[in-house]
Amino acid sequence: MTKKKVTKTVKWLTWFRNKWFYLLVLAAALCVPFVVPNQYFFQLIMMSCLFAIATLSLNLIIGITGQVSLAHGAFFGIGAYGVAILTTTSNMSFWLALPLAAIISALAGLIIGIPALRTRGAYFAISTLCMGFIVELVASNWIDLTGGYNGIVGVPQPSSIPIPFVGQISFADQTSQYYMVLFFLLLTIFVMHRVTYSLKGLNFMAVRNNENLAEAVGINTFSTKLLSFVVGNFFAGLAGGIYASIIGSISPSATGIVNSFNWLAYLLLGGIATMAGPIIGAFVIPLLMEYLQALQEYTMIIFGILLIVVMIFFPTGFMGGITKLNEKLRYLYSSRKGGAHRAANSGKSL
Amino acid sequence: MLLIAENLYKKFDGAMVLNDVRLEVDEGEIVAIIGPNGAGKTVLFSLITGIHNPTFGRIYFKGDDITGMNPHVISKKGIARTFQLTTLFDQLRVIDNLCIGYQQRTTGGLWSTIFHSGRWKRDMDKVTAKVLEVLKFIGLEKRSNDFVSTLSHGEQRKLSIGVALASEPRLILLDEPTGGLIHEDTDEITNLIKKINESGITVCLIEHKMRMVMGLAQRIVVLNHGSLIAEGTPKEIVSNQRVIEAYLGRKHHA
Predict the structure, then answer these.
(1) What is the DSSP string of A30-46?
(2) What pLDDT is stored for residue A252 in this prediction?
(3) Is residue B160 part of a domain?
(4) Average pLDDT over residues A158-169
(5) What pLDDT does residue B251 have?
(6) Residue of A nearest to B45 (CA)
């Protein structure tokens, strides 16, 4: 009995020792509403959370499965317009409209993916790029549905959730909205983590690594790529839906190619094919850009140079750089025995 | 008969690379396909595994017509193959490669992956058991957590055979399993092939090292310029006049 208790405690302690850093980050994330200096900054952080959801799902498609999709902004837009139209025209509840919009986005991914995923490499990137432009054009010209260039204004905030005996959770103020966004970010991290570190994730990585071999060992490469694309676009749509509701309006520019390239930059700078990289990228870069605003027109130049430097010296981004540094430090402190194989190992992390 | 390939023709851009080839593989035997470079041996494997479609002819596996099926469907039916140039998932670790080899026998979908359902747990148990079994079989237990890029060439060869074995095949096609290896590694691979065959898997291999083939194969099929020129036991093959001509050239009669 006591022995059992001890092993259980030990198990918890080991778990805690392995995860303390993540728990600390989570605690910090929960404390954010109490330390933010102003509403504007708070809004920026919320946007970063949404961008992190989008970048994480982009990572599933580009980083894990190796299919460079440039239509992510378009699917974000489909989710955003989905929620905007469903809540304003059809007066649907936000909590019904959000999953519906995400499913519409995933379905759009399925329809686009079936022809587009038959192409490989650069051709897939080009076809998804076109897809991004098409969605933006449709959004700005289908005036009856999307309101054309003016977009849709007056998208209601998330409706409050009634809880029996306690009252209700309302999402009228920024703090509650932040916790809602944080919840969806954690949900995305959870799903991405489960999918990546599993047999399904190995299938995705097998397709990224060698499509012909993957096919030869019994992986249906086409449906594997399609699954990754659809799941990724589901979360892009989810992020878009929340965005429309929090901002309160949506215009065609939000569906545009700019978003796709921004998230691609977050992904590359943060660390492609890692779990933490996309999140770090989505938080650090927008905030950095905000502080560099004083430099006005030079921001993009600095950003461009940074991107080139990272691509050359840290092809796996910030997280890849950290891993490399870690390996080097361990090499310095470790015995000679493990050195050669670690050296051979470094730089092969992608 | 486990595998029957009948009247296979394959044309690439007008060049006939296979010309009326018939291949039969019986349950439990080791068949070697030999022939000079460009004889069409690898193309024959590609046709059987569905990478290319034959221009004419049909292929039957366990009595089913598998002509023109996708490679992943044929793999599920029980034909595994290795490639001439060692082909592995080189960004991943040894165990990842073996897991990928076995995953086609699992049934879990996206839901069971996300929610860790009972099916997911059963899949994980099955995968773990299989991977450990294959690691022991190919003798790479010590390297299980290493990245493929750190393995020696001989070890990579063994692993590529292991990936094929992990898919629980009935028939395994080995494309030059000892190509470019030193003597000791060749012997190890030869023993491994014998062990695979003893475990009940039918083996069909392409090989250039005659000495190895003579000791290993029960039956030898000889291809030259896309045509089948001889078939028989190793003893029959070494004394076959057409085979000697194909390898050493025709004698000049002055």
Answers:
(1) HHHHHH-SSHHHHHHHH
(2) 87
(3) no
(4) 76
(5) 62
(6) A216
pLDDT at A52: 95
Q: Does B91 touch chain A if contact means CB atoms closer than 8 Å?
A: yes
Q: What is the mean pLDDT of residues B134-153?
A: 90
Q: Is A156 helix (H, G, I), strand (E, B) or coil?
A: coil
Query: Counting Cβ atoms within 10 Å, is residue A60 exposed (0-12), middle (13-18) or buried (19+)?
Result: buried
In angstroms, the CA B143 to CA B136 distance is: 11
**Span A78-98, mean pLDDT?**
91
**Which candidate from A209, A216, A350 shows the least CB-CB separation from B71?**
A216
Q: Provide the domain limits for residue B63.
A: 3-92+168-248
Using an 8 Å CB-CB cutoff, list chain B residues near A341: 146, 150
Amino acid sitting at position B202: T
Output the domain CATH number for residue A71: 1.10.3470
Q: Is residue A16 part of a domain?
A: no
The Cα diameter of chain A in Å comes to: 71
Residue B226 is assigned to a structural domain of this protein: yes
Amino acid at A94: F
For residue A193, the chain B residue with the least C-alpha distance is B114
Whether chain A has a CB inside 8 Å of the CB on B6: the answer is no
Domain interval for residue A344: 319-350
Q: Are A198 and B75 an interchain contact pair (Cβ–Cβ within 8 Å)?
A: no
Q: How far is B73 from chain A (nearest CA, A)?
A: 7
How many folded domains does chain B comprise?
1
Instruction: Give CA–CA dist A154/A151, Å, rounded.
Output: 10
**A-B Cβ pairs (cutoff 8 Å, strict):** 96
Evaluate if residue A80 carries a pLDDT over 80: yes
Q: A interface mutation test: which of B42, B90, B113 has the most A CBs within 10 A? A: B113
For residue A227, what is the nearest residue in chain B, using CA coordinates?
Answer: B110
| Angle between the N-to-C axes of helices A199-209 and A174-196, in degrees from 0 to 180, rounded to the nearest 10 | 70
Per residue in A107-130, pLDDT tens?
A: 999 999 999 999 888 999 999 999
Check CB contact under 8 Å for B116 and A194.
yes
Residues 6+ apart with CB under 8 A from A72: A54, A57, A58, A61, A232, A233, A236, A259, A260, A263, A264
Interchain proximity B70–A215, CB inside 8 Å: yes
The alpha-carbon gap from A212 to the nearest alpha carbon of chain B, in Å, equals 9
Residues A60 and A164 in one domain: yes
Nearest-by-CA chain B residue for A218: B72
Helix, strand, coil content of chain B in percent (nearest 5): 45, 25, 35
Is the model's pTM score more than 0.95?
no
Q: Which of A206, A208, A216 is the closest to B81 by Cβ?
A: A216
Number of folded domains in chain A?
2
Is A28 domain-assigned?
no
Q: What is the mean pLDDT of chain B?
A: 89
The first and second tokens of residue A239, run together, are 């992020």
